[in-house]
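Aggregate trends can hide what the representation actually does to any particular protein. In the encoding step, the backbone of a single protein was reduced to a row of integers, each denoting a local shape. The record that follows shows the chain in one-letter code together with its fold in token form.

***
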Amino acid sequence: MAKQMKDMGFETRCVHGAYKAESAQPQNLPIVQSTTYRYYNAHDVAELFDLESPNHMYARLGSPTVDALEQKMALLEGGTAGMAASSGQSANMIAVLNICEAGDHILSATNIYGGTYNLFDVTLRKLGIDVEFFDQDMPLEDIVALKKPNTKVLFGETIANPALSVLDLEKFVKAASAMEVPLIVDNTFPTPALLRPIEWGANIVTHSTTKFADGHGTSIGGCVIEGGNFDWTVKNEDGSLKYPSMAAPDESYHGLNFYESFGDAAFCTRLKAVLVRDLGCTMSPMNAYLTHQGLQTLDVRMERHVKNAQAVAEFLSQHPMVDWIIYPGLKGNKYYDLAQKYLPKGASAVMSFGVKGGREAGEKFLENLELCSIVVHVGDIHTSVLHPASTTHRQLSEEAQIAAGIDPGLIRLSVGLESADDIIADLDQALNKVR
């Protein structure tokens, strides 16, 4: 018997997963660039609105091109369903809002992307959702002790951007299980080529597909992948449902119970049927097509990214003008052992370091780069650098920046696919001009 796609090698899933051309049809995933879909009777349209049909009606709620990307991301992560969104920010937002409302409480590791920190700490608070940040390296029992009666979510990043702390997935899975809440994990930096959190017990995985998933700096997007491994019928101490949005009748769909009706795809089904319907954070067919195309080379790209990053990190660790460097793939790094456990194929391609002389020296270093690009981005084929304290994390106070692992002089470096020798030569000449 032929293997099913989910049982084939990761490389094969990257190339062939989710879309298969029928006879005489396009070998590559087509771009369905249409806002609307035609029907010939009212009954067929009614089935769409009652969520009884898998077909499409309006591009805000999906398209065949977006569907293929969602299926591919779920296949690569080992999930049961996927939901594409307009950006990584919107993916994290709708993942939380799918199960949280005013009066609820979420627990999040402090070391997360500044945009996500701001989303939780400012925007969600304005919506009445309380958030508590904590040190992800705390002992298990101390994390569990943070639970409140209204706690609904535990959140973390597999490799934090740009603090580069590695999440202890087993500990977080145990904490979430003890609190009877889902663990949502942002897996943007490792991608499923290096780490698949659902295999370790995570319940929901999110991505900014704008980064390594696309890999070419062409397409903004995000994705939520469901693990299908959380019981949404869990109850509060008073016997009421903890997640009524998932496991109680939804009056906006004639009393439909999402978990009862859709089982291990309930979370993503509700994301599309309610959150994307109401908030409109839809991925475009063109961006879905380009991201799907990028995923076809994900495995080989990440292998090269990691190889280059390790060489660059080892070079920087020995350079006389580098004050310090943070890369989980380096021996002696605080998270080296966790990286070896969870990321044996490599600790992705982003690192942070400080130039001797502090912030002013760091700025001079950037000005002297010739090959490396100064961009507000990571995770594509170009080697890129940034100063987060004055850019991506500038909304945070210096105290909050430091708490999130952002030293004021920190330089973030995303290693691309150029020759490692050429990347190193450019970094070397720029560093030497700071002397």
